[in-house]
Write a structure and sequence with these properties.
The chain has 322 residues and is α/β, with parallel strands linked by helices. The chain has 3 domains: 97 residues, Helix Hairpins (Orthogonal Bundle); 117 residues, 3-Layer(aba) Sandwich (Rossmann fold); 66 residues, Regulator of K+ conductance, C-terminal domain (Alpha-Beta Plaits, 2-Layer Sandwich). The chain contains 12 helices and 10 strands. The strands form 2 sheets. Strands 3-2-1-4-5-6 form a 6-stranded parallel sheet. Strands 7-10-8-9 form a 4-stranded antiparallel sheet, covered by helices on one side. Strand 8 and strand 9 form a beta hairpin. Helix 2 packs across helix 3 and helix 2 runs antiparallel to helix 4.
């Protein structure tokens, strides 16, 4: 039950419930204090009167005796009762949107393997879903959004809940996933979710999509790969202005069904050779080299191939691997 309460608290922090609760509490205390002072009763009696009043119970055993007390009562009722109503309404909405059945295990975990897991949500998800499903047999989306925001698809499973919550992540079968993509409304959400996920799965299958490069350093410090979407878009736009066909080049590489962009280990016979010497003999078009998590085109430098490096290459589907 403790984790259920924690989940509800996390949920209501994301809306105005805490503001309403604080204002209602302050209004109740002020009303109780003014009532005690003007009606010459104890502060405890004032608190009792205020709570009975703002909850609309209205026992009638403690009532204002003069016009000043009635003014205090009118002010307390007009200000605090609507706030208390909003507090209860928001708590009820939070509990409903958490899908209590899921939290109690009524809905089982995603029964899939080799799938793509998306942790978090952005408005781009519905637009990207068809492309992601073309590349993966199954997609599991874990997001703290309403079901109506998520498109229906037979290959996609939706798990409603906070992706930073271990109990929610346990339902996504992360240990059986092929890749995990982390997105979010803010860089803070992305970093927190990625850090939680890397406690459960190998870091090299996680890709975090941040909004800027600011969060990339924090992710790379713990070995999580990241992409800064806003900076990437800005850089690509700049290159497109300089080279108008840059978009066409990238689009053909990524959209072609007959061309695969992949990372492959350096063959044993190539270790110790310069990158330039193997480009012509590779089974595909070698774009560059990855070592220690960093990519280089090999231009103008010509790095030496090592056993811990990987080659990034374009290969026509069906051709022999390098």
């Amino acid at each position: 039950m403790l984790w259920l309460v924690t989940e509800l608290l996390t949920k209501v922090r994301k809306n105005q419930t805490w503001l309403y609760t604080t204002l209602a509490g302050i209004g109740t205390l002020i009303g109780a204090t003014l009532f005690a002072l003007t009606q010459h009763v104890s502060w405890f009696t004032g608190i009792y009167w205020a709570i009975v009043t703002v909850t609309t119970v209205g026992y009638g055993d403690v009532v204002p005796k003069d016009p000043v007390g009635r003014v205090v009562a009118i002010g307390t009722m007009i200000v605090v009762i609507p706030l208390v109503g909003a507090v209860f309404a928001n708590w009820a909405a939070a509990a409903t949107s958490l899908h209590i059945g899921r939290l109690f295990g009524v809905h089982t975990a995603a029964n899939v393997k080799g799938h793509l897991v998306i942790l978090g949500y952005t408005p781009l998800i519905p637009h990207l879903l068809s492309e992601l499903l073309n590349a993966h047999s199954a997609v599991v989306l874990v997001a703290d959004v309403d079901r109506g925001q998520v498109p229906d698809h037979p290959q996609m499973q939706f798990i409603a809940g906070d992706p930073t919550n271990p109990h929610v992540l346990a339902k996504a079968s992360l240990d059986a996933a092929e890749k995990i993509v982390v997105v979010g409304a803010s860089d803070g959400d992305v970093v927190m979710t990625a850090l939680e996920a890397q406690q459960l799965v190998p870091k090299d299958i996680i890709l975090a999509v941040t909004h800027s490069k600011t969060a990339i350093g924090a992710l790379e410090a713990v070995g999580i790969h990241g992409i800064a979407s806003q900076d990437l878009l800005g850089e690509f736009l700049t290159k497109s202005l300089e080279t108008p066909h840059a978009f066409n080049v990238l689009h053909q590489i990524l959209a072609s069904e007959s061309v695969v962009l992949e990372e492959v280990p350096v063959p044993e016979g190539w270790v110790g050779k310069p990158l330039s010497s193997v480009r012509a003999s590779a089974g595909g078009l070698v774009l560059g080299l990855v070592r220690n998590g960093a990519f280089t085109l090999g231009l103008p430098e010509d790095p030496t191939l090592t056993v811990d490096a990987t080659l990034v290459q374009l290969r026509v589907t069906g051709s022999a691997d390098s």
